[in-house]
Amino acid sequence: MEDVSSDLLEEFKERMHISHSIEDDNLKRLLSFSIVDLREKCGQFDVEKDLRAKELVFERTRYSYNDALEYFNDNFLSQINSLGLSIALKESDSDAAI
């Protein structure tokens, strides 16, 4: 399971208008699952620095939180593909520089 920072959790809660802390463990787990899933699909990214990746992590977590995860891949397919392509191109550029 991916370690989720307190800052990331708070940013997600703010976005979702969640003001209580009762669900923090569950939200951390959902965020972690989303990070792992998107890294498997797109490649390695730093969720704290890559805003496109963070956006997708938040969207996937929102879908999961609302029990609608089965719709996420279809609804965000172009963004997932775009992020994956962007990560692959960055890796290719850094490999070429070596």
How would you summarize the topology of this molecule?
Layout: H1 6-16, H2 24-42, H3 51-65, H4 72-75, H5 77-97
Helix pairs in contact: 2-3
Largest sheet: none
Q: In angstroms, what separates the terminal alpha carbons? A: 32 Å
Low-confidence stretches: none
Strand content: under 5%
What does the overall shape look like?
globular
Discrete helix count:
5
Q: What is the helix fraction of residues, given as a range? A: over 70%
Average pLDDT rating: 94
Structural class: mainly alpha
Walk me through this protein's architecture.
71% of the residues lie in helices and 0% in strands. By secondary structure, it is mainly alpha-helical. The protein has five helices and no strands. Helix 2 crosses helix 3 (51-65). It has helices at 6-16, 24-42, 51-65, 72-75, 77-97. It is globular.
Give a brief description.
This protein has helices spanning 6-16, 24-42, 51-65, 72-75, 77-97. With 98 residues, the chain is mainly α.
Give me some keywords for this one.
single chain
